[in-house]
Amino acid sequence: MDQDGNESRLGARAVIDASGTWGLPNPAGSDGFPALGESKASASISYRIPDDVSEFAGSHVVVVGAGHSATHAVLRLSELARRSPGTRVTWVLRRGSATNVFGGGLGDELPERAALGSRARKMIDEGLVNLVTGFRVAEFRQDSKSLTIVAEDGAAVTDVAHVFALTGFRPDTEMLREVRTDLDPAFDAVAGIASEIDPNIHSCGSVSATGAKQLAQPEHGFFIVGVKSYGRAPTFLALTGYEQVRSVTAHLAGDHEAAARNELVLPGTGVCGGSGDFDDNAGSCCAAPAPALVQIGLRPVTVG
Ligand SMILES: Cc1cc2nc3c(=O)[nH]c(=O)nc-3n(C[C@H](O)[C@H](O)[C@H](O)COP(=O)(O)OP(=O)(O)OC[C@H]3O[C@@H](n4cnc5c(N)ncnc54)[C@H](O)[C@@H]3O)c2cc1C
């Protein structure tokens, strides 16, 4: 559509979808569905990091989420709590341990990313933030005065004025309905890179499959790149996107040697574990929790 609102079609030999995930934040419900009452309470829930938090001075604000966005929000709000007596900040984590949330410390090759976690830990130690772990958001109950957040096990965070649900984003595939795509059914990432970025297995930042070959879709000449190619996986860095685009454009220009080359070197995070099993176990780096043998249809066997 042009500036005057006139629509037209544009022919192209190839299309690269780099439209990101920013438009589709995840809900607060811990199972990926909106929690009960979440849409009714929408006036009291934000899904982006706040720029200006001054309006929350003197109130109880809750941050839901374990990623860098949530950590940013917690830091902004805890500075407000320091300046404005009566402000309370509660940080709700689905996972049972906050260990990985505080980052990789000296093991993180991006110092500013590492600093985020250590600053958050300091705010908790100073009593400016109340950390609640193992809280799986199930329901929002709004009354005339405030909001109550209820977990699946019945635990509750009460007297809440506002919630920042910073639980990640997912790609918008609506415009691709008529286009043949190959996306991972579990987390919407491009299937060709999905096994390397599965947040249930690892999030240490390492990923090698990232070029035109892996990103090409069944629709001829169509590629998905950037954070959208990662689907709901939370570990994307711009560096990966630059490498993806370098490879795809080399492929389109006919330089297949350059397209096949992998020039990506990612800084290690020093921690691993995005979601899923890691919510219960702060697992070891870049490996799924050890497999357990499950026998079906047999008598229980004592191991030991
Ligand atoms: C809060 C936050 C902080 C982050 N910090 C970092 C960081 O410090 N370092 C880092 O490497 N990564 C960071 N990331 C990850 C970051 O998302 C990516 O690195 C980078 O922005 C992704 O680039 P992208 O081009 O794939 O998507 P985006 O930057 O999201 O760009 C997508 C663009 O497509 C446009 N668009 C969407 N739909 C359409 C459409 N239908 N038609 C046309 N245009 C459309 C959007 O308006 C947008 O401009 C951060 C992410 C978040 C959410």
Q: Would you summarize the structure shown here?
A:
This is Thioredoxin reductase. With 304 residues, this protein is an alpha/beta fold. It has 6 helices and 10 strands.
Chart the SSEs and their pairings.
Layout: E1 15-17, E2 45-46, E3 60-64, H1 68-83, E4 88-92, H2 111-125, E5 130-132, E6 137-142, E7 147-151, E8 156-160, E9 162-165, H3 191-197, H4 212-215, E10 222-224, H5 238-252, H6 256-260
Parallel strand pairs: 1-10, 2-9, 3-4, 3-9, 4-5
Antiparallel strand pairs: 6-7, 7-8
Helix pairs in contact: 1-2
Flavin-adenine dinucleotide (FAD) is lined by residues 18-20, 22, 49, 69, 175, 226-228, 236-238, 241.
